[in-house]
Amino acid sequence: MNSNSSKADAAVKRADVKISPGLMVHVKGDAPEKDGAHVGMVEHLDGSAYIKLAREASGDGEAHWIPMDWAESSDDNALFLNVDEQTFKEGLLNKLPH
């Protein structure tokens, strides 16, 4: 499989993820069968590249954004990310990139 094919496959998987306001956000757990820590709540999508997290669920009262690329799957209650808690903390954006 070439790199263009794998990028296209990743885009298809993200397109199938339903992201809506109020979904709890969970990072990847230590084991494949375990959900990771709850790290926030979806406020809304900012364009097609970023997800804004609700400031009231952020822990520090500030608005934050995460890349759409981190969205792995979702169900009726939660959005599950493909990054662990450390990567989430290191990559959390405090403002929307332009």
Question: What's the structural blueprint in terms of helices and strands?
Answer:
Elements: H1 3-15, E1 24-28, E2 35-46, E3 50-53, E4 64-67, E5 71-74, E6 78-81, H2 85-91
Parallel strand pairs: 1-6
Antiparallel strand pairs: 1-2, 2-3, 3-4, 5-6
Which CATH architecture would you pick? Roll
Strand-pairing-aware structural class: alpha+beta
Helix-strand sequence: HEEEEEEH
Segments where pLDDT lies below 50 for 5+ residues? Answer: 1-13
Number of strands: 6
Number of helical regions: 2
Strand order across the biggest sheet? 4-3-2-1-6-5
How would you characterize this protein structure?
The structure is a single chain. This protein is of the alpha+beta class and 98 residues long. It has a single domain, classed as SH3 type barrels (Roll). Helices cover 20% and strands 34% of the residues. It has 2 helices and 6 strands; from the N terminus they run H-E-E-E-E-E-E-H. The protein has helices spanning 3-15, 85-91; strands spanning 24-28, 35-46, 50-53, 64-67, 71-74, 78-81. It has a 6-stranded mixed β-sheet with strand order 4-3-2-1-6-5. A hairpin with a 3-residue loop joins strand 5 (71-74) and strand 6. The longest helix is centred in the N-terminal third of the chain and has 13 residues, at 3-15. Residues 1-13 have low confidence and may be disordered.
